[in-house]
């Protein structure tokens, strides 16, 4: 492409083009050539003028009205009576092509505000846009779009809220970009292909053959006589509609973007990553495999959702048996691979749309799970892409739609097809559908999936590499911005799993990359767009905070006990973070500890490699980079030496010689400090000083010596991603470099290094047993160009000490007005869940709440 598809952010453009040609304008979703004519100049309308589009040459002219050329872009000044043209320029082999464009604009001198001309406005023709500076028109920044997205998100009213407010135009965040409209495949008016319908009541061999044909050819079919009663199907669709049409204040309590929530209502799970928002709201319910408490479901749809879930799971078992036989396998093969083990139910609501041609209900995509079973109402709108044409999937009373997911295409080695599909927006609405995804997306698993070995041969080698579901789902989620690309169609140039393995097997860590002289951050370390977008929202919406992390002087605690307890209480209840000075750990010990931690990481690789391990339980001393390397969304710019110091005696010989003596001395001092802090925290809860110690909170601890090398592109990654700690309490020693930040009132607040001070933060388990009186705050570490940064964290935890002790909210803190917020747990279960999910930016605590 010589110039990509765009429109001009000016009042008017005058173009001189030579004889080569290549200029195309978009008309009715078709590209129209603008041929060079000797002598004339091409004139076209810019966004700021957006008038009835006039294309003319000075020796002669065309007048083409708005129904022929141009697209509606909702930009100011003429109030859309004129149209700004969308165009591009093709590259060519004849060239060079030499055009000269004159832009009439004040872009570099924004001295006044522009909006729709008042003389053009009336009650029947209200303004379509707000006032704007020239610099903000046509060059809408990410931050402006993010503000619009956040305003929509924070309303918690979804698309239905927009429609209820009486809008007559589709808001900009929902508009399909011109290139999508231009590239749209045609919709077949007289389709030569009809979606297969399989009658499950027919004889088995015929049903298997029908399923095989549909799964191999198009990847989507409808089933009748499927065993789910018509009454259940009708009531499920009705309950889904009733939920979405509830009063906002009732359904708003379910609105969230927290990944861990089992039941959540929202609009567009990929809101901050997609090219444009879809005209759709959704109630999401993760039904299996983990036990599901019906009380978590909205009362309005509780009973019918549980019943529909039970019946659709039975149907799923039958479908996987048929699909197994269709592959020539035993009927239980796919079920034995856990394909039917988990499922989620998504209740979609597509409100009537005032301009359905400008957006989509659901944009082009394929499903990332094993299989989808869809209940759709009578409205229609679902389309599949078959042989480059969009084919309608007509609603059939009582039928259910079944489509193959990406994972089933992968394990079938492309025998089955995961079809791309979409839902068009409609004037008719609301449209309601209920999709059941057979997936283990919400269930951490170490199981690897690849092409089924029984399907492979010398003539039919594997088409895909093996993958974990976490890695697959992360990759799928990250591809949202390129909607329409299924897993099968992704570029093979970036093999994430292979790069992770290569990094891991080098055993050199991040420091090894820096020592090798890299000047770019490798792809496995790159933060995903939604993380960066979230940061832009925080920095763009807020003024710099005046909040400072509390500093508590522990000198003469005995003489000022009540005052120190009050300070600890305030810090633990508000931010969950504070620094302590005069804490009893000698300055020399602190300095020596930082020095030896750095020395270890800067040893020659052959000296430290003997400690490199990913063993999650056995080794008490191990060096590695990123404990969650294979689960995380992206790798952190950090290496770590982990040493489990207590409760089981540690043989000093297990510690590296370079840091052995200092580490034992630091461990002894920090354990004493930990005992004092747990006493103060007990009293801050109104308990006896020994209460938390009696609960074994001080019994075990481990040391993590972190090393953050300097980073060539620190804005693209993080030293440690957003997380909270899975322990009772953390005491952190940090050097002078800085970079630690805590998330307080939706702002990232620096935790500045103070010479001689130690940082203390509440852990997840202490928040749990305090029943949310104390806060386990989310925090992170920035990458930096100054490095290396060194820190030593002491985690008070029993992670490595098998225990049958049950932990739950402390009974003395509970009452009728303060019921328990969390279920009782084994620490092993908590830590296993935390380690399986990795540092994914979501708190593990949500998983253990009684009602989520």
From TrEMBL:
Its cofactor is Fe cation. It comes from Mucuna pruriens (Velvet bean). It holds the Pfam family 2OG-FeII_Oxy. InterPro entries: DIOX_N, IPNS-like_FE2OG_OXY, IPNS-like_sf, Oxoglu/Fe-dep_dioxygenase_dom. Residues 1-106, 341-440, 699-798 form the Fe2OG dioxygenase domain. GO terms for molecular function: dioxygenase activity; metal ion binding. Keywords: Iron, Metal-binding, Oxidoreductase. This is 1-aminocyclopropane-1-carboxylate oxidase-like 1. Belongs to the iron/ascorbate-dependent oxidoreductase family. Gene3D superfamilies: B-lactam Antibiotic, Isopenicillin N Synthase, Chain.
